[in-house]
Every structure is written in structure tokens, then in C-alpha cells.
Description:
By secondary structure, the protein is an alpha+beta fold. The chain has one domain: Beta Barrel (Thrombin, subunit H). The protein has one helix at 74-85, and strands at residues 16-21, 24-28, 43-45, 51-54, 58-61, 66-69, 72-73. It starts with 15 loop residues before the first strand and ends with a helix.
Amino acid sequence: xxxxxxxxxxxxxxxxxxxxxxxxxxxxxxxxxxxxxxxxxxxxxxxxxxxxxxxxxxxxxxxxxxxxxxxxxxxxxxxxxxxxxx
Length: 86
């Protein structure tokens, strides 16, 4: 799969799951992405086609020299929305 940004059709990027991190999920950014800028609000879909998170930030882990995306877990978002309804 060609991961270079292009205009036109929707882009699909494959992230690698790393670990849960509180209300977020740590995922390794694909090498083709420099920093994940502009992806906030994008959906994270698992291999079963289920929504598992929403991209909300990223950072560079200097210890592992890895670009890490930190999408918010959909379960955490649902918890917040449920509390707002009350």
C-alpha cells in the first residue's frame, strides 16, 4: 500500500497497536506520516471493522525513537457522553 499523502481519494493508514494508556490508546504511527498533523478527529477502526478510537494527539517517544499516536478510546468517549446525559 502506498502511504504517501495525495490529493483525491480518502487516505487509509495502518497503525500498530502498542498499549492502552488510561483513556487513550498508544499506537505507532506509520513511517510515511511525519507527525500525524491534520489527522485529529479521524476514526480508528480495528481489524474487525469496529470503531475503537478517535485520533486526538501524538508525540515522539525519545526512549524508543518512535512516533506515537494517542487516540482517545471510544469506550472513554462513551463514558463521558453518558455522564453528560444525566
